[in-house]
């Protein structure tokens, strides 16, 4: 959501709630994030097939995340006055093309080119979908529409990767990207069939992300978001090497553990999500505490599949609530700059994914898996400390 995409003026009649297009947009966010995150669960087989290290393969996340982070805040200006429905359909098809190219990649150079295309598609889609809730729902149902749209992000982060890992275990890693390409085409068709015309709207004000950062609550929430996402992806990107080298798990066992992590994450999303609506800081603190604790415990839990699974369940529940709780904190900290702060949140979130995977790759190549998990715990712990030290404003909310 950016300050170039605006809500209907207060005098405008309420829009009838359109749940099919809301769910279609949620499918789009699920597809986009699943495509971005898929290398996490396939890191080892991709590295072996392409003849590069795990750290180099992890750069495929960095490439995508940095491009998406750079483009998302400016997407409405880039696409100009074009109908948003047509733009979303076109860029979902570009995403499908990028996933197909990833599936065909004979070496890392081609994979990098595919991930560049994916980053462009992600940036434009991210820059448009965050503003669609108020255009597809009315009054009190806007919050539910936004929750459903963002649930695609949370569910993809914790379920899309395990499902892709499971498919890769049955076939190979390229099959997972072919499945994502097919899903992208399907999503484009669903968006074309269900979304109403969404013509561009003029700017409501000139406030941008820099203005939003002047509010202490927004700035704190953005900083906390950066820390936890950096920490999570520093460790989570290299989770498969941990499970293979340290825990000695087979591909099937890894897929089962990641699937358990994913299901726990869905539960965390729908548990911490409602809590964040009432107490966003509390929900953020619980999520960050869980991520930090799980990262600390995992090196000591590699003696068996049961202990690994228990720690991953904790990690999944905790990270499942990160997207919805941090976004809610940012959104409610200062409603007057909601568009600018939402755009900033999206950019920081994606940049932190990229930088987290990059930092994790450097650590794991130089110091090993234990060090990368300790790094993840430290960053999430720093975010937890900042959350605890922040001072809420207002009586009704703690954010």
Report, as a whole number of angstroms, the end-to-end distance.
Answer: 20 Å
Order of helices and strands: HHHHHHHHHHHHHHHHHH
Write out the CATH superfamily name. MFS general substrate transporter like domains
Secondary-structure-based class equals mainly alpha
Shape: globular
- Level of helix content? over 70%
Give the overall pLDDT as a whole number.
83
Q: Main beta sheet, described?
A: none
Q: Work out the number of β strands.
A: 0
CATH class: Mainly Alpha
Looking at the structure, the CATH topology is Growth Hormone, Chain: A
Tally of alpha and pi helices: 18
Unreliable residue stretches: 1-15
Strand content: under 5%
Describe the structure.
This protein has 399 residues and is mostly helical. It has a single domain (19-389), classed as Growth Hormone, Chain: A. The chain is built from 18 helices and no strands. The longest helix is centred in the C-terminal third of the chain and has 30 residues, at 338-367.
Short characterization:
By secondary structure, the chain is mainly alpha-helical.
Helix-strand layout with pairing:
Blueprint lengths: L18 H19 L5 H8 L3 H18 L3 H5 L4 H21 L3 H22 L3 H4 L5 H29 L2 H22 L14 H4 L3 H21 L2 H8 L4 H28 L1 H18 L7 H16 L1 H12 L4 H30 L1 H21 L10
Helix pairs in contact: 1-6, 1-8, 1-9, 2-3, 3-6, 3-17, 5-6, 5-9, 8-9, 8-13, 11-14, 11-16, 11-17, 11-18, 13-14, 13-15, 13-16, 14-15, 14-16, 14-18, 16-17, 17-18
């Amino acid at each position: 959501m950016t300050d170039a995409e605006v809500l209907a003026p207060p005098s405008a009649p309420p829009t009838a709630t359109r749940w099919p297009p809301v769910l279609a947009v949620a499918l789009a966010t699920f597809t986009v994030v699943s495509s971005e995150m898929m290398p996490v669960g396939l890191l080892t087989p991709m590295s072996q097939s392409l003849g590069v290290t795990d750290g180099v393969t992890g750069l495929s996340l960095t490439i995508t995340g940095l491009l998406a982070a750079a483009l998302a805040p400016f997407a409405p200006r880039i696409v100009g006055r074009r109908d948003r429905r047509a733009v979303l359909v076109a860029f979902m098809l570009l995403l499908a093309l990028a996933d197909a190219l990833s599936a065909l990649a004979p070496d890392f150079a081609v994979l990098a080119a595919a991930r560049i295309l994916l980053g462009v598609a992600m940036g434009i889609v991210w820059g448009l979908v965050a503003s669609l809730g108020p255009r597809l729902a009315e009054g009190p149902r806007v919050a539910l529409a936004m929750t459903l749209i963002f649930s695609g992000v949370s569910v993809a982060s914790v379920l899309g990767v395990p499902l892709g890992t499971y498919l890769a275990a049955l076939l190979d890693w390229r099959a997972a990207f072919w499945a994502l390409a097919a899903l992208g085409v399907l999503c484009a068709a669903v968006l074309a069939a269900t979304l109403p015309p969404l013509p561009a709207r003029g700017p409501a004000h000139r406030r941008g992300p820099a203005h939003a950062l002047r509010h202490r609550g927004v700035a704190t929430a953005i900083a906390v978001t950066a820390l936890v996402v950096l920490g999570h992806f520093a460790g989570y990107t290299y989770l498969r090497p941990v499970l293979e080298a340290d825990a000695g798990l087979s591909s099937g066992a890894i897929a089962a553990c990641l699937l358990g992590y994913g299901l726990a994450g869905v539960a965390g999303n729908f548990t911490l999500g409602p809590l964040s609506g009432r107490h966003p800081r509390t929900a953020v603190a619980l999520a960050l505490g869980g991520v930090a604790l799980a990262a600390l415990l995992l090196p000591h839990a590699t003696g068996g599949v049961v202990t690994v699974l228990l720690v991953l369940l904790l990690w999944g529940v905790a990270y499942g609530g990160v997207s919805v709780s941090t976004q809610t904190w940012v959104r409610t900290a200062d409603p007057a700059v909601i568009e600018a702060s939402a755009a900033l949140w999206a950019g920081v979130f994606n940049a932190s994914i990229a930088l987290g995977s990059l930092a994790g790759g450097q650590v794991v190549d130089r110091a090993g898996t234990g060090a990368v998990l300790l790094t993840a715990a430290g960053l999430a712990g720093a975010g937890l400390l900042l959350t605890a030290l922040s001072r809420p404003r207002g009586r009704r909310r703690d954010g």
